[in-house]
Amino acid sequence: MFIRQSVVKACQQSILALLVSGAFLQGATAANKNDTAPLFTEKELQTAAWIRDAARSDNLSYKILESLTTEVGPRMAGTPGDARAVAWAEAKFKELGFDKVWKEPVTYPSWTRGIEKAEIVAPFPQPLSITALGNSVATPKNGLRAELVEFANLKEMMAAPDEKVQGKIVFINHRMQNSNEYGLVVPGRSAGASEAARKGAVAIVIRSVGTDNHRFPHTGVMQYAPGVAQIPAAAMSNSDADMVARMIKRGKPVSLKLELSSAAAGTYTSYNVIGEMTGSELPNEYVLIGGHLDSWDLGTGAIDDGAGCAITMAAAEFIKRNGLKPKRSIRVVLFANEEQGLFGGKAYLAAHQNQIAQIQAAAEADLGQGPVTKMASFVRTEALPLVKQMHSVLAPLGIEPGDNNAFPGPDMGDLRMAGAASFGLALKADDYFDLHHTPDDTFDKIEPARINQAATTYAVFAWMAAQAPISFGSGQELLKAAKK
Amino acid sequence: MFIRQSVVKACQQSILALLVSGAFLQGATAANKNDTAPLFTEKELQTAAWIRDAARSDNLSYKILESLTTEVGPRMAGTPGDARAVAWAEAKFKELGFDKVWKEPVTYPSWTRGIEKAEIVAPFPQPLSITALGNSVATPKNGLRAELVEFANLKEMMAAPDEKVQGKIVFINHRMQNSNEYGLVVPGRSAGASEAARKGAVAIVIRSVGTDNHRFPHTGVMQYAPGVAQIPAAAMSNSDADMVARMIKRGKPVSLKLELSSAAAGTYTSYNVIGEMTGSELPNEYVLIGGHLDSWDLGTGAIDDGAGCAITMAAAEFIKRNGLKPKRSIRVVLFANEEQGLFGGKAYLAAHQNQIAQIQAAAEADLGQGPVTKMASFVRTEALPLVKQMHSVLAPLGIEPGDNNAFPGPDMGDLRMAGAASFGLALKADDYFDLHHTPDDTFDKIEPARINQAATTYAVFAWMAAQAPISFGSGQELLKAAKK
């Protein structure tokens, strides 16, 4: 018997509630239409529904995140906080009773922030609230000073004549209006420096890529294009960008002094930290969930991505604690250095590239505290009725069905490109880009009900994916079928 | 004729609208009950109602504040920003067409902020977001390190045995729950250092006196008690205070390293900057409105108190621009160094102490961007029917009537204690203590409709007070009557 007595009682109550509400029945009926396809058994569906209801009153994800943000705090890749986070993760996995806990090395170039200061020096002297972008080189010692030239976005800057940019500090004033615009606005951060340097700019200072109206600059990684001069790159807060734009609008030249001492700092080896609940029947097949363990240094990485770590650790632990024995293994991976270039995800793929077919399903949590609002899949056609059953169990949590072209999350993106069956458990990002990469990404922003819904969703997902009667189809065939 | 043709037309429309709405009629009827008391004439009431309606579509207060925060920005007393603010204020008064513009010296001890850093060094190393409190002394060079001892509030700390505090850094963890609790919580900031020092503490770090949930520390002035050791004093953000409290709750000693280089910096002379619209009949009697020109250095002083300066400058300018000629003078005073000890207010009283009786009414704006929600008065009994009429005109702006024991604002507090008739035009402070004394006090937080309502209220108030048929009674008699 794999459910404790107290659990059985709660389970029976849950099932009763479900039958009364009709939610569960609806799902089962819909799935039963496809009589020939392999389906979850009635008992498996009941257990999944029990997890959904019982886990909602659990609070473990909140507690794990409290522990990480209090006992470790900032954990930028390559810093002492990174090493403390790895130690914390190993210890926490063990404390939570994971069957196997191990770490896998991830080596990457390290970067240090150093001094970061900026001030308008003319016509109206004012200090600015700025931060260096990850990977930025330093300014000359004691800073550099030049006139600002404003552009509405990266594209407009790229279209400008070189003379307009030559010798200036480029100011990309591209406001991110809502959480859907990250992809639209972020190229100014990641590629702006090199594009500005091509035109002879001496530095770039962008409006932060963030949706808040506070005086927090948002950091984030940038990359230099090969063969182009490397110029310093920083972001100012939205409040500062508003103010600088107002100054520029007055028509007089506006000069900025920028001082950064950020620098590359050699090579560092951190770790993907992995905890596994080993499967009872198919231990070498596994459901892969997780988040990234590193954070930026400015805040304590509560929503980015302590939440993802906590959600997925709690999900697996809930299954184990309640005596449920999944057929397949459930593997929680806390990835190293996502922020500076997805190094943990790449290292995981490199270490496990011959095991793609063993991945039953991959789903990362890296968009904040939840709740999950949608479930998309990327599975072979034969498994779609199972996905439908999974969704039917999850629907009462307010989760919409998605398409069959899911993206599992940043660190698992390469796995999917290599053919891993994937799920996209979309987290509600309404506050995510307010806090993202700022000093304000702290634990006090977390609402227990939100993070708990996400942990519950991951628990149901992980359990059902692990129990599924057939493989979800990871491998080249899946990629080929998707291309058709 | 003291109203331009276009204004007359708008005025007639306004009066019509008022009659239809009944709002104006109501006020007039109520006031007319007291037939023997001197009252505003029908024409004066009509003009006041016209100001109320016409000024609502004005936008000058917003523009003045945009100018101050963009062209001057931070203007902490004694800094170059202070001098730039004085120059800005003189120029702006002249540009706005004030009849007389002058400045009066205000001398005070100056203080510099310097370096401010804090980090938890054990058991869980984490940097904190802190700021020095105004007047704080420095730590030893390279900082000091000691164990934290937490208290729920100042009172609890004062009641604790000395042994508990000796050699420690006191952490006063008193959360300000809403904007009404400033008076309750602020003693921990202003008096905490000396009270902690009496018990042998080596420093004090308080939870910020602020209602926000962001990673901004709130600065603010503190005072050392004579004859007590001076220990460094700082505030941490609410987010940091939450985190430190969580650490302490784990039961192990929590050690903090604090580094401040703040210091007293000699004597500085700044100025109260004054603009006057001179009265046509009683030029030596004046309605006194204003705000304080200095701000803290962390933000740009948009709500504290650029808003108060802008509201009152715009109010007086609106009257002048529309050709209205007040009987009494309207004097706008932008006070120097309110933040570090009400120096501008004290200097104004010292320079004008023989003219208390000439103050028709005093009302300062120093609680943010508005709107005004209540009007209280402090006038002789004979003037109360006039106050009632003033309120009737203002009521459609959503302004409640108050008592006759008004406080005119921090810089005018001493004037009131000396017998100046006063008005308390209460500003809605819902967001004020979120932003107050933080880097986040910036212009982007200002809503035109809010600040404009406040400027409109001050224009109506200033006009009516200047036109009143009798004196509001400033002088010793008023104080005596109030004490009865």
From TrEMBL, chains A, B:
Keywords associated with the record: Carboxypeptidase, Endoplasmic reticulum, Glycoprotein, Golgi apparatus, Hydrolase, Lysosome, Metal-binding, Metalloprotease, Protease, Secreted, Signal, Zinc, Zymogen
Domain Peptidase M28: 272-459
Signal peptide: 1-30
A Pfam family this chain is assigned to: Peptidase_M28
Cellular localisation: Endoplasmic reticulum; Golgi apparatus; Lysosome; Secreted
InterPro entries in the cross-refs: CPQ, Peptidase_M28
Keyword Flavoprotein: no
Major localisation: endoplasmic reticulum
Subunit note: Homodimer. The monomeric form is inactive while the homodimer is active.
The name this protein goes by in its record: Carboxypeptidase Q
Annotated organism of origin: Undibacterium danionis
Lineage start: Bacteria, Pseudomonadati, Pseudomonadota, Betaproteobacteria, Burkholderiales
